[in-house]
Amino acid sequence: MEIAIITGASKGLGASVAKLFLESGIHVAGMSRTDNNKLYDYAKENNTHYDFIPCDLSDKDSIQAACKKLDDFVFQDTLSKLYLINNAGLVDPIDRAENIDMDSLMKQIQVNTTAPMFLTNHFLRKATENNVQLLTAIVTSGAAEKPKYGWSVYCSTKASMNMYTKTVAIEQKETGHKIIAFSPGVMDTGMQETIRSSSQGAFKDVESFRALKENNQLKDADMIGGVLIDILMDDNIENGKIYDVKEYL
């Protein structure tokens, strides 16, 4: 039996990846604040299971409680492979650095950096203890390599996850566990709505993002999710690589 744990599985790319895993015969555990009833239907249609694990990734107690629930039913004798998709992320607050308060700063770092690091660390340990291979994907962004006005926290957190991916991959060379980062490009998701709602004073490039929507240039989340699934299913997946969807479209 194979299981995929996906953060932010209720919508956007997370929901698309969850659906595609279920269609591939892989059971899914979704970690998010809200549920997505359609995923239960996809699971039933494909004779798989979808489990919803309520979790607020900005709260460490919520994350630890979710991990305990996952440990109890994921690590069974029938488990042969585990996927961890660190998909959830926050792009807001979008503003000049001097305008970002402590609470907003800490929440964005917690969701974008601390939570995926902790989850990866946790399931690396548990997978090793249970002699199961773990394949981890961290959703990153082109913003990790290119600074954007108003995105000081988002760019920094994504850059840190790229380096985390490369570093952990070095450590796992002898274990069989693999970790990659995946840059999905611009998709038609709720995150893009948040970006387009920014003021130009907070985000100088906002008009270019609005133009992407107006000109139908945003990629479909199901299509991008399919690329990620193909990468993860490839026997030649490269440990520590930062995969860019542009290489495949």
Give the tally of structural domains: 1
**CATH domain topology:** Rossmann fold
Shape: globular
What are the secondary-structure elements, in order, as H or E? EHEHEHEHEHEHHHE
The radius of gyration computed from the alpha-carbon positions, rounded to a whole number of angstroms, is: 18 Å
Helix/strand-derived class? alpha/beta
CATH class: Alpha Beta
Strand order of the largest sheet: 3-2-1-4-5-6-7
Number of strands: 7
What is the name of the CATH architecture? 3-Layer(aba) Sandwich
Subcellular location: Cytoplasm
InterPro entries: Biopterin_syn/organic_redct, NAD(P)-bd_dom_sf, Sc_DH/Rdtase_CS, SDR_fam
GO molecular function, one term: oxidoreductase activity
Protein name: (S)-benzoin forming benzil reductase
Layout of strands and helices, then pairs:
Layout: E1 2-7, H1 12-23, E2 27-32, H2 38-45, E3 50-54, H3 60-74, E4 81-86, H4 102-129, E5 133-139, H5 152-171, E6 178-183, H6 190-196, H7 206-214, H8 221-233, E7 242-244
Parallel strand pairs: 1-2, 1-4, 2-3, 4-5, 5-6, 6-7
Helix pairs in contact: 1-2, 1-8, 3-4, 4-5
Structure notes:
- The protein has 249 residues and is of the alpha/beta class.
- It has one domain (2-185, 220-247): NAD(P)-binding Rossmann-like Domain (Rossmann fold).
- The protein contains eight helices and seven strands.
- It has helices spanning 12-23, 38-45, 60-74, 102-129, 152-171, 190-196, 206-214, 221-233, and strands at 2-7, 27-32, 50-54, 81-86, 133-139, 178-183, 242-244.
- Strands 3-2-1-4-5-6-7 form a seven-stranded parallel β-sheet, with helices on both faces.
- Helix 2 links the parallel strand 2 and strand 3.
